């Protein structure tokens, strides 16, 4: 649960780190002429305190973008497919999976062909966001599991009606939407090895409210994290985030898709750092007016990642 007390008093103490917030705001404002929507969120993994909440509609701060607006999940939903594949199919990061078609193919009738002629390890497929493999895994996991894992992980999902729908959903093309705050809840829960912890923007209101971290359930088994972190690591090591963060101890997942809801091109980057024992979880998202190859939510969050790497903690 995300919690803000109904009454906000003058002496409210917020969890926001002002220095990091200014960095996030400056990055998003600098690119605002290209963006319809943009957001950067950062949380302390153990406490659930939100340290950055930079939320923009065009060049104006808009709280609703982070906390109330739903966006297509795109390849973030591959996280659901991956966790279900680990827990239902007992898949391991180095297991090789055969597939047919281009890695970024959008045609499930090709993915599901009966003559696969290529193979890729599970972790490399995740890092590269391999559509044929994740479409295939979604069918093997089963539509019921795919739907229920999606709901458990804070996605707004539509039940897939057939194998083609399951394949497209598992690869991130249809049937799944998420708010940036729920994406942060997802990635914070993963970083906490499956434990869902409360998130807050308010640390205290003296005499009225004092925040205390609460455990609110589980989204996956604790041992699943040991496998999943290797998939997230591969995104940065050799996958879709390697151009920006190859030498950083960060785990992540990217996603991109034309956003018909907002008539723009949505890009996501979510993750945590350091990989083995995460301290921070983040979400970086943008909806571009048109597709700009030079812009990236990975580049947007990188200045904050660099500061956290340099100092090791909030300063």
Describe the SSE topology.
Layout (H helix, E strand, L loop, with lengths): L1 E2 L9 E2 L3 H13 L4 E10 L5 E8 L2 E2 L1 H5 L3 E2 L5 H12 L6 E4 L8 H4 L6 E4 H7 L2 H11 L1 H10 L3 E2 L5 H8 L5 E3 L1 H12 L3 E3 L1 E2 L1 E4 L3 E2 L4 E4 L5 H14 L4 H4 L5 E9 L4 E10 L6 E9 L8 H15 L4
Parallel strand pairs: 1-12
Antiparallel strand pairs: 2-13, 3-4, 3-18, 4-5, 6-10, 7-8, 9-10, 11-15, 13-14, 16-17, 17-18
Helix pairs in contact: 1-12, 3-6, 3-7, 5-10, 6-8
Q: Describe it for me?
A:
The structure is a single chain. The protein is an alpha+beta fold and 315 residues long. 37% of the residues lie in helices and 26% in strands. It has 12 helices and 18 strands. It has helices at 18-30, 63-67, 78-89, 108-111, 122-128, 131-141, 143-152, 163-170, 180-191, 224-237, 242-245, 297-311, and strands at residues 2-3, 13-14, 35-44, 50-57, 60-61, 71-72, 96-99, 118-121, 156-157, 176-178, 195-197, 199-200, 202-205, 209-210, 215-218, 251-259, 264-273, 280-288. The strands form 6 sheets. The protein has a 6-stranded antiparallel beta sheet, sandwiched between helices. The chain has a 3-stranded antiparallel beta sheet with strand order 2-13-14, with no helix packed on it. Strand 3 (35-44) and strand 4 (50-57) form a beta hairpin. The protein starts with a strand and ends with a helix. The model has no long low-confidence stretch (mean pLDDT 94).
